[in-house]
Amino acid sequence: MKRNNLTxxxxxxxxxxxxxxxxxxxxxxxxTTIKTICVKQKNKxxxxxxxAFTFDRNDILNDPxxxxxxxxxxxxxAAYEIVTAALRKGKAVVTANKKMLAEHLPxxxxxxxxxxxxxxYEAACxxxxxxxxxxxxxxxxxxxxxxxxxxxxxxxxxxxxxxEENISYExxxxxxxxxxxxxxxxxxxTGGFDAKYKLVLLLAHAFGIVVQPEEIFHVGxxxxxxxxxQYAKEKELKIKLVATAYKNDDGTIAAFVLPKLVAKQDKxxxxxxxxxxxxxxxxxxxxxxxMGKGAGAHPTASAVLSDISALSYDYRYEYKKRxxxxxxxxxxxxxxxxxxxxxxxxxNWLKAYFSEVVESYANREVGYIIGTISLYALRQIxxxxxxxxxxxxxxxxxPSLQPVAVDDTSVYDFAVVE
Length: 418
Ligand code: HSE
Known about the structure:
alpha/beta, six-stranded parallel beta sheet, 24% strand, binds L-homoserine
């Protein structure tokens, strides 16, 4: 069904919902009308008169004139109810809810197929960067080998502010919240969950593999201590939260989210503040780099707008790579070289988990180990350690990722404060 005139039912009028309203006012060429806006809280002050809103979701879901539902609410459970109800009623859906999408991708794929309606979600992954549509369309034929990137704006903003402007982690987080970058539960950002949800979406479109978020190993930025921040600064390196996925020769896909030390030569080095950056590597084109604002009202609204516009020519994701037999590489087999800082005196039990230790040091208070370890072993350490440990990726053990050549001495002479 071609949707020449798009009549929108909008759920949510927060940061992105209001942003979309503004952006639509400024793009009159797109034939769209927001007919109804549904919000939850009745007594909240909003930029439009109270009469512009309904509090009953059925006012949208049961309205036959509304052919597009735009879902921009915060609550993933309610979002799932709304999105599935809308698809079942034959309405096209645009959503930015990565948590909801990542947790329910198989059901949502089935509903799109059964009811023959599009569900678009460019805004759910890297906000203003059109990465989903590029993976879906452009990289359909060229063999994709890896995708790696900074996919969470808030944590990148926090890392930039704490490293470069000497403001505290708490202040930086507060500022990210004030700017409308952070999730309402910021642990989703700082704990690396949001990046993992986005990686689930990237995997579906990059490699045709649909996985549950729990299957992906992740560490956020909440373990990073002053020690690693100081070390990075001294060595002119930066710590970035990086989502990585690559295809192995046996066809399995390695996927994980970890803080990573990046050097000046790395394309991700200059991706600062709220920006996201994604590097793709394909067999023929070699590497390509996408960069853009990864959070905030207008960058996110711009991706929502692009999806709405795509509906007018009946665009839908075809998940062309879906029939592939690709599987996730087990954590026991994914090897990474990392720097693990810890504050346990007994470092020997930690070292036993490494398949190779390049260097280690410990004084009475802090210590570090540099070496190669499987993600499975790293998970064991994190789960079993009674003291905080902080892993920072140095390089993924995948040759085609071409890790930046930082000379050994600069990375490995880790100066521990005595
Ligand atoms: N909290 C998310 C981020 C919002 O900081 O990236 C955009 O998805």
